[in-house]
Amino acid sequence: MHYRRKVVRENLAACFPEKGERERRRIERRYYRHLADLAVEFVYGLFATPPALKARYRFVNREVVDRIYEQGRTVVLMSAHMGNWEYMVCSLGMQVRHHGIGVGKPLDSRLVGGFVARRRIRYGTQVVYSDTVRQEVAYYDRHHVPCALMMLSDQSPTNPHRSYWTTFLNRDTAFLYGAEKFAREYDYPVVYYSVDKVRRGRYTVTFSTLCEHPSEVPQYSIVENYARRLEADIRQHPELWLWSHRRWKLTRNGRIQKNGKLHLIPNS
């Protein structure tokens, strides 16, 4: 099933104008095969055992994160909807020495969302949402508990005036600033992780440090470096990113609605 085919084709055409129509169609076909894999893996991940998850989602250089834990510091893990992010949510709490926290959005269905949330946390990962993440981070910082904050920072922000804007995949793009904001406020090191699909159902995760001391670098430099790392990963493996997401629905002064009209958002 070609879920949101129009959105996928519009995104690919705008992001890869240098590629021909035939090459973009090849990326599209590979993307839908990967999306089908993700649907199966999503269900599998809710019931998989710890050894099975670790075999399918392998950390290549966990020592990058372990070193931060040995310093007694919390780490901000920045990534994207690339590869399989559900495996990271389910396995983070048992794959790192930190207390794992996944920051996300609740599912629309309360019944399904409640079941999925319980399955995600069964191996130690704590899942928090935007309305409680600040309190949770403050609590663990106050009690000196080193945490690993997993933040998928490629989602479309809700307010264009409270976003960081940059050129990303040939497009004027708004980025969430939350990860850098937390890192600056508490001087947490920031680590980016790339997810590579080795073969169907098997992924490797590679960590790389974006910033050791956020308070010492210019504002927005962390999210800018994140955007550049993510862009490089997408160009290398475009089929692994979530192209069916309406990523560019924001403009610098409003939001493009589904009917194509622009809804202006006041700068308050």
Structure at a glance:
By secondary structure, the chain is an alpha/beta fold.
Explain the overall architecture:
The strands form 3 sheets. A 7-stranded mixed sheet has the order 1-9-8-2-5-3-4, with helices on both faces. The longest helix has 25 residues, at 21-45. Helix 1 (5-15) crosses helix 2 and helix 3 (50-56) crosses helix 5 (85-95). The chain has helices at 5-15, 21-45, 50-56, 63-70, 85-95, 110-120, 133-142, 178-186, 221-236; strands spanning 57-59, 75-79, 99-104, 126-129, 147-152, 164-168, 171-175, 190-199, 202-211, 250-251, 254-256, 262-264. The protein is globular. It contains 9 helices and 12 strands.
Largest sheet: 7 strands, mixed
Number of helices: 9
Cα shape: globular
Determine the structural class based on helices, strands and strand pairing.
alpha/beta
Beta-strand residue fraction:
15-25%
Strand/helix succession = HHHEHEHEHEHEEEHEEHEEE
Number of E-type strands: 12
Strand order of the largest sheet: 1-9-8-2-5-3-4
Radius of gyration in whole Å, from Cα? 18 Å
- Ranges with pLDDT <50 over ≥5 residues? none
Average pLDDT over all residues: 94
* Span of the ends, CA to CA: 42 Å
Q: Percent of residues in helical segments?
A: 40-55%
List keywords for this structure.
single chain; 268 residues; alpha/beta; seven-stranded mixed β-sheet; three-stranded antiparallel β-sheet
